[in-house]
Specification:
single chain; 207 residues; alpha/beta; Rossmann fold; 7 helices; 7 strands; Flavoprotein_WrbA-like
Length: 207
């Protein structure tokens, strides 16, 4: 059975979307069915223009009713003061109908992220989003430390045991590095392997 994985992101300046491309490569290496989505923007065009934000990527905007179609989820979240931005929180808050039905219970989820600095909240962004998974009864799949790029001290590398990631600099000028993209691809591959095993167990239980 092929697992269907939704890669759901919010990206103002493109850093998360760049990491997501490598995440998808990793997912597809395993044969998993990867689908890209972004959450809805809550800022006006006027505000985004003042922020010098580029046009949104040509990625479908997800609605909560689509979530049960997937076998697993990788959420790409930029950090705002050590937690998820309002746009992502608004999407998570809109899943109450799914919660009442426990429609997402037992499904695996992981995270990747971006920050403006090495200590800008990559881990706390995941930590403060875990209650969403807990209330839905979802299964958090951390990255752990299986890849050598998590141990390098030769250069700045985003990511940790909590998931893959990138460091954008406070002005957003730094795009994901080769090591960060390698880690993201590995992350996608590792997550897909786990999600596929879980989806097979669920399928067997239904037989």
């Amino acid at each position: 059975m092929v697992a269907k994985i939704f890669v759901i992101t919010y990206s103002t300046y493109g850093h998360i979307n760049k990491v997501a491309e490598s995440i998808v490569k990793g997912l597809e290496k395993t044969g998993a069915e990867a689908h890209r989505f972004q959450v809805a923007e809550t800022l006006s065009d006027e505000v985004l223009a003042k922020m010098h934000a580029p046009p949104k990527a040509d990625i479908p905007v997800i609605t909560p009713d689509q979530l049960p179609e997937a076998d697993g989820y990788l959420f790409g979240i930029p950090t705002r003061y050590g937690t998820a931005p309002a746009q992502f929180k608004a999407f998570l808050d809109s899943t109450g109908g799914l919660w009442s039905k426990q429609a997402l219970a037992g499904k695996p989820a992981g995270f990747f992220f971006s920050t403006g600095s090495q200590h800008g909240g990559q881990e706390s962004t995941v930590l403060t989003t875990l209650p969403f998974l807990a209330h839905h009864g979802m299964l958090y799949v951390p990255l752990g430390y299986p890849h050598p790029n998590l141990f390098t001290n030769e250069e700045v590398v985003g990511g940790s045991a909590w998931g893959s990631g990138t460091v954008a600099n406070s002005d957003g000028t730094r795009m994901p590095s080769q090591k960060e993209l390698e880690l993201a691809e590995f992350h996608g591959e590792k997550f897909a392997a786990i999600a596929t095993k879980l989806s097979q167990i669920v399928a067997n239980d239904k037989v």
